[in-house]
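note to self — DONT lose this again. spent like an hour looking for the file last time. sequence + predicted structure for the chain T wanted, 393 res
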Amino acid sequence: MPELTDKLLRNMRPPESGRIELSDTKRKGLRIRLTAAGKASWLYEKSVKGGGRIRETLGSYPAVSLANVRELTLGLEAEASQGIDRFKNAKIARANAEAKQASRKTVADVLAIYIQQHLSGLRQGQERHRQLDASLANSLTFPIEALTRGTLQAAVDEKLNAGKDVMANRVAASLKAFTRWAFQRGYLETDVGAGVVKPGREKPRDRVLSLDEVRAIWRASHNLGTLWGPFLRLLILTAQRRGDILGLDWSEVNFELCRIELAGARTKNGKSHVTHLAAPALAELSAMHNGQRTGLVFSTTGTTAVSGVSKAKRRLDASLSSGFEAWTLHDLRTAFATAMAEAGEPEPVVDRILNHLASGSAPSAVARVYNRAEQLPQRATVLERWAEMVVQH
């Protein structure tokens, strides 16, 4: 058998059919195959010490020259004598990489697990869920490993730059809690949220809506339609937290006793809470009620709370006078407390309506244990008076 040379290879002619193969006398196991279509390929076959055999294609000729393929096979022969099969190892590495890629979880995957295992058990779980969805919206399809501190910080700074300092703090806290949880469970190699900078300490708001301003908001709410209008008016009339009213279920509305009854799992402080429904508030709910006893009150599906509170408030603000000072929905609670205090109503009664644990200084141990009077009649009287003050024309 002639030795393979560049001249011999250049002068090879394709067979009329099938293929021909020429072996290299200098490199045992190396041969070249030429098909009837004129395609020439390098083949290599070699026993591996303590294992199987290498059977691989090493490229095509003349893209891979004779000198190059001989140098390559020299290295393969040396590895084979040591029991190394680089092609098998490469295939195993690729398979492992593909398996790892297939098992990689996205940000959305890990977030879904976090919501199910952790947030679902928190009273503020829905709010944190909403914050995380909005903050991570552009990263949900990314692998969880691709989440960076810069991405998280940008979400916080976006709120801060918009002048929403309180919300920026909330977002920072939610993101840091999520990444800490993901790190502790091995979804992240490092806690990328640990270094996220919070905007700073929150300052108590000095804004107190006057009674005239509350009345202006009440009138403007009638421009918001049949969903957001009643929501805002019920928020005003009950002086309850936005989340408590937004998540209100028909099963929590007691029409016979004219009140809302929330279990501790639904309130911020974990205590069950009763809120009297003044006549205008009861009328709002009665107008929306269609005989159903379950499902969310403020919802388009009955199962999930309606979204878009901020958008609805912007619509409301647009219908207020141009000189109306900036305000938040939470300011309605402050307005109620201030107006009732100025009207001479007892502070403990007002605090119970707001579902605050204590008023004034911290209560004594005795007070915490024995002062369980609900003062429901007094609370009903205060809320009826508040409703008359707001809706009077």
